[in-house]
Amino acid sequence: MSTSVPLTPGPGAPNVPEPGTPEPAGLPPYVAPQWRFCPQCGGPLAAHDHGAGERGTCHAEGCGFVHWNNPVPVVAAIVELDGRVLVARNAAWAEGAWGLITGFLEPLEDPAEGVLREVAEETGLTGRVEKLLGVAPFRRKNELLISYHVVATGEVRLSPELADYRLVEPARLRPWPSGTGHALAQWMRERGHEPVYLDHFGQDPGY
Ligand SMILES: [Zn+2]
C-alpha cells in the first residue's frame, strides 16, 4: 500500500520564498501545531525549552518523551520515460495542477530504494536511480525533500491516488516556485533548459 502524500499544497496556498530569501526566525506557525498528548504514555505534553526552543515534553514519571518535531524525509522523483518527464495530478488536486512522484519512506528503507518503490506503486513503472539531485528543506511542511532523477521503463498504470498524468518534453516543463519545483528547475538547467517558473503551484501550465 502506498504511503505517498502530495508534496505540495493545493492551489491558493502561500508560497515558500525563493531560495536565498532569509527565512523568519523560529518555527513557522504551520510547523508549531502540535501534539497535545504523549504517544508513549498518553500523558499531557507541556512546552519545555531544551535549548533550541520549546518542544512538547512529557513530564510523567519514567517517561520523558520529547516531541522534537524533526523534519520528515520525503522522496521525490523526476521520472523520465522515453525522454519525457512524467508529471502527475493527485486526485485531491484541481485540474491543471501537476507535481512529481513523491512519498514517505517505510521504516529502515534506503531512500534510493524508497523512491523506486514509490514510482512503481504510483505509476506502475520500473525505474532506476540516475542521480541524486539534492536534499533540501521544504519548510512550510517541515519536510526534507530528497530528490532523484529516475529513468523508467514500462507502461504507465496510475494508482488510485493519482487522477491523471502527462509526459512532458523537458524544455516545456514549468517548475513551481516551492517544494519539489526547485529540484525540477535544477534538473532542467543541467540540461540547458532555462526554467520558466509558474507563479504558484497549481497554476495550469497547459500540458
Ligand atoms: Zn509520556
Automatic annotation (TrEMBL):
<dbReference type="InterPro" id="IPR020084">
    <property type="entry name" value="NUDIX_hydrolase_CS"/>
</dbReference>
<dbReference type="Pfam" id="PF00293">
    <property type="entry name" value="NUDIX"/>
</dbReference>
<protein>
    <submittedName>
        <fullName>NUDIX domain-containing protein</fullName>
    </submittedName>
</protein>
<dbReference type="GO" id="GO:0035529">
    <property type="term" value="F:NADH pyrophosphatase activity"/>
</dbReference>
<feature type="region of interest" description="Disordered">
    <location>
        <begin position="1"/>
        <end position="28"/>
    </location>
</feature>
<feature type="domain" description="Nudix hydrolase">
    <location>
        <begin position="68"/>
        <end position="190"/>
    </location>
</feature>
<keyword id="KW-0479">Metal-binding</keyword>
<feature type="compositionally biased region" description="Pro residues">
    <location>
        <begin position="8"/>
        <end position="28"/>
    </location>
</feature>
<dbReference type="InterPro" id="IPR000086">
    <property type="entry name" value="NUDIX_hydrolase_dom"/>
</dbReference>
<dbReference type="GO" id="GO:0046872">
    <property type="term" value="F:metal ion binding"/>
</dbReference>
<keyword id="KW-0460">Magnesium</keyword>
<dbReference type="InterPro" id="IPR015797">
    <property type="entry name" value="NUDIX_hydrolase-like_dom_sf"/>
</dbReference>
<dbReference type="GO" id="GO:0019677">
    <property type="term" value="P:NAD+ catabolic process"/>
</dbReference>
<dbReference type="GO" id="GO:0006742">
    <property type="term" value="P:NADP+ catabolic process"/>
</dbReference>
<dbReference type="InterPro" id="IPR050241">
    <property type="entry name" value="NAD-cap_RNA_hydrolase_NudC"/>
</dbReference>
<keyword id="KW-0378">Hydrolase</keyword>
<dbReference type="GO" id="GO:0005829">
    <property type="term" value="C:cytosol"/>
</dbReference>
